[in-house]
Amino acid sequence: MHQVFMFWLTLLLAVRGIESLDFCFNASLEDTNQEFDLEFQSKDIKNYILLDNNVPAMSNMTLMFWINTLKAWKMAVLSYAVEESAFELRVFVAKDKIILVRIQSKLEFPVPPINDGYWHHVGITWSLGQYSIYLDGTLVYTGSGLGPGTPLRANGVFAIGQRLLSTSGNFHSGNSFSGKLSQVNMWDYDYISTSGVNMKLISQSCSNIEGNVINWSALQDLARGNVVKEQPRSCKPLRNNPEYDIIASSTEDIHIKPSENIPSLQAITITLWGKRLYGKNIKYSAETSLSFYIHEDVFKLEINAPGMLHFREAKVPTYQQDEYWHHIATTWSSETGDWKIYLDGLMVSIMYDVAFGITIPAGGHKLLLDEVSAHDSSLGRLNIWNYDINGEVLSLMAIKGPMFENGNVFAWYGVESKAKGNVTFQKTPSDLNNSYTTQEFDLKFPSKDIKNFILLDNSVPEPMSDMTLMFWVNTLKGGKMTVLSYAVHGSVGELRVFVERDKIMLEIHSLQAFFREFPVPPINDGYWHHVGITWFLGQYSIYLDGTLVYTGSDCGLSGTPLRANGVFAIGQNLLSNSENFHSGNSFSGKLSQVNMWDYEYISFAGVNMKLISQSCSNIVGNIINWSALQDLARGEVVKEQPRSCKPLRNNPEYDIIIASSTEDIHIKPSQNIPSLHAFTITLWGKRLYGKYIKFSAETSLLFSIDKDGFSLKIAYSEGGSELSADRKVSDPTYQQDEYWHHIATAWSSETGDWKIYLDGSLVHNMHSVVASGKTIPEGAQLLLGQAPGTSWVHDSSLSRLNIWDYEIDGHVLSLMANQGQGPLFENGNVFACGFSKKKFLGVKGKQDGKKVSSIPRPTMHRVFMFWLTLLLAVRGIESLDFCFNASLEGSRLNSTILKKVDVSSMMECVVSCVQEPCCRSINYRKRLPQDLASLCEMLHDVVYNTSAELEKNSSYDYIYFNAPRKEYNSSCDKDTTHEFDLEFPSKNKEIILLHNNVLTKISNMTLMFWINTSTADKMAVLSYAVEESDKELRVFVQGDKIMLVFQSKLEFPVPPLNDGYWHHVGITWSLGDYSIYLDGTLVYSGSGLGSGKPLRPNGVFAIGQKLLSTNGTFYSGNSFSGKLSQVNVWDYDYISTPGVNMTLISQNCSNPVGNVINWSALQDLASGKVVKEQPRSCKPLRN
């Protein structure tokens, strides 16, 4: 027995009046039911489960758990530490994220909000860097790159509910879990791939199988602190739950009870699934009301405030009339004024300045689903939140959906008990899924054959004065090919659209006079490109990859519409209104999302061509509807599903730049380079000089970008002699400015002409002078490197390098530069910048000759992760090898600074850190307008192994090293006591900047500081600037005055502060109401300070200076001189907090720590000649 209580006992005296009682019992059958949950009742490091159970080394791992929480902060579900690493494995959840950390690798996965107070199931598998994430039984993410590809180390310690800092059980209190957990289990193999395992079934049963590494049933008695065991367990899954998994139909208004009394709304997100759902209005009724209308072809947002109506509408497709379910989402933010619309996971519209600054007050008790037009329609999964949900999350809801989210204003769960009206509820049908995904297909035309086509008849019921056509195209063919043709009786060429290698062609009304050719960057590059065309009675616009490239008014008979009742052909040039085609123009390649409208769709409010070209999808047309074409293809046209369409715009494989090396970079060409009789090279560069691009072969070609011009050299053998033809042209030294420039050059063997284009303009054209008649033989090597004869080292950047084996038309090159609006998305046929991370083979070092692969981070907008070998004289060092990660742009690690040095460039900062024994990472502050140099802050901490926070700061870039790896050294630690003052010795460039302090819009504020000065001038203690205003907040002192600027200005006479003694100042502000304390005494209070509006968010703080802009410029006449201490700011009225006593605070010369500005975090942010005094000299006058 587990426990045995067998004994004889004699109870004497009065036991229920019995003089004696003899018995024997067995108490071994105690309750061993494992159906329980554990509730972590508060965010406290005392609440945890610690497990040390001889953990094996694991190359594979599966973790599953159920979670139920209302908290939004980043919380640790599980962490695993070994002696060598405190971050061997960490699993966090935040409001709408799952976060995985494996050693120095951290990946964040946006998910539908899981802090909704409902149970959700999470499953994670990991195998040497490969991972899969499941949410509520649905696979939502898979990928690689989580960790270094080595097994999890053995013999560590697990913590559940806490983030471990060591194997001894030390925790980081900021990540403590609060909420409920259930069925936390772990396996040392890929349990999910085991035969018969079905994640959807597991997420329905609210239970996992027991793990062999962590077993939930063994944890119930290991909980410590305020962790409560709940039995029987409360876990109720959303999947297949009758409280959730239903739909609603109605022909009348539906009154909806919200989740609770709705708070004031500064933002909103609405998501739902609908089928034929139009003529509906979702309305929140209060003093200020909000309505979201869903009509047949428009969505409308109306915010009706007292005395003011904000109304916008956005054009959307008539998708509502099909028989599919669609996911609709919309978000609005008062803070930004942005209104966004998502359809089937794609952002299809964004409108700006919609009800900016408006707040919908609390106290509304009614949501109304208003029936504007009565018809059969169905609604499911309506959820509403009081914040703006990330677009990536909304996309996930649609594409992976339906999922199981629940809004915090209105949750679909239990809707039957919340809705009143003539509503019919029924179980969700099996066809509720993202119907859009069933239409995600491409059509491949494998060859130029008149047998391959799509024919569409009688789809134009009336003449068209307006027309919009959109399509995606992917081809390698260079000939003239038909995308679409339209023939009517009497006009076989009523409309024709062709593509050629570097042209889009448009013909209207069968007249050669109205045939137009539009030169464009080559689109026969094997990549997907998006084309948009609008036409209105002769006027036209042409879009390529989301960019407007041409407009005009001379295409078609003026005032004559396109005739009705014709025939469309896709992929063929119609010669009649039947199946009679011109074989020479047959299409070969892939097409996707061919749609047409009989109106100018692109000009409607909310339609954004760049968004459409990012999502790789068009909206469904009303004349040609792509979803209806999939079964109309004839011949050998192949339907490819899922679609392969991958847009170039905002594609991490494309949208990167390369920080130039001082050594040659070997480039893998797009294919084996053929013999070259001509070439075109295009690129974007910034301070790009002293570089060359070289074709190395028997006859070689070298194009050099020099400091004062360009040169071209073609070296060849002739008659046994080595000869060369080279030319150099001088050009303005634009390379030395701080702007990006577009550079293009073209050469032709046939003519010997060499042309150079700068920012789209032809600046040099040398005729018949360079190697006329010469050919570069096939098989050449391609190099990018340091130009011969140059020795200078400088920061330079390169992007969008492309090379073609023919001469591109000058007008096209001008279009690529796009009058300064570029870049476009061209790809060369010799070398293409798309997917360049796979083509740059690294930097070839001269000493060892090895090639070192680049290590890109494709999720970053720009990639600066590469191996470098610095040779020659770099601070007198012959060679220096290192690898660093500079992807964390706009961030600063708030850690103790070892050393600060002025530098001229980021590279100098990197090299300085490599040479400093204790330096393991750096904060690099870019040069501010008033500075002579940039600032390099050397740190011993590293972001992946410290409790220090990585903060957003637009003035900084954070950089850490992958090699050489320096280990932690306690002797490198500095004294980090927070008892210090800062002395500004003179009125000069002494300044502390706190960029991007993530200040939210606040209606209340408290500022406290200690001051000691002998200067009588007007001096800035603190200023705060936002993009819209440089005087959002300013605090000055001047002899016997304190001056406050909160959008307006007030002066307060006080006893002289410039007496060389320490004085304490406290200030509170609440939408114009203020209080001022001096040395613990309330000296002023009143109202009228400011406009009565909150302080705007996302600005810049400066201490010791008066800011003139958010980029760090300031007015030196108000610079501070003296000493400051304990400068702290809160985003609430801290002084009114119970227990706070200003008299006591002014006696001990210290403030508590602020939550907006924290004095302890400022000690290393001072620039200029600000002196840190430690221990602090602050001696209050009081007491």
Automatic annotation (TrEMBL):
> Is the keyword Calcium assigned to this protein?
yes
Stretches assigned to the Pentraxin (PTX) domain: 34-235, 439-645, 976-1178
Q: List each copy of the Apple domain by range.
A: 883-963
Q: Where is the signal peptide?
A: none
- Cofactor dependency: Ca(2+)
Keyword Translocase appears in the UniProt entry: no
Q: Which InterPro entries does the record cross-reference, listed alphabetically?
A: ConA-like_dom_sf, Neuronal_Pentraxin_Related, Pan_app, PTX_dom
What are the alphabetically sorted keywords of the record? Calcium, Disulfide bond, Glycoprotein, Metal-binding
A single Gene Ontology MF term assigned here is: metal ion binding
Q: Which PANTHER family match?
A: B6, PENTRAXIN
Protein's UniProt name: Uncharacterized protein
Task: Say which species the protein is native to.
Answer: Paramuricea clavata
Q: What is the lineage of its organism?
A: Eukaryota, Metazoa, Cnidaria, Anthozoa, Octocorallia
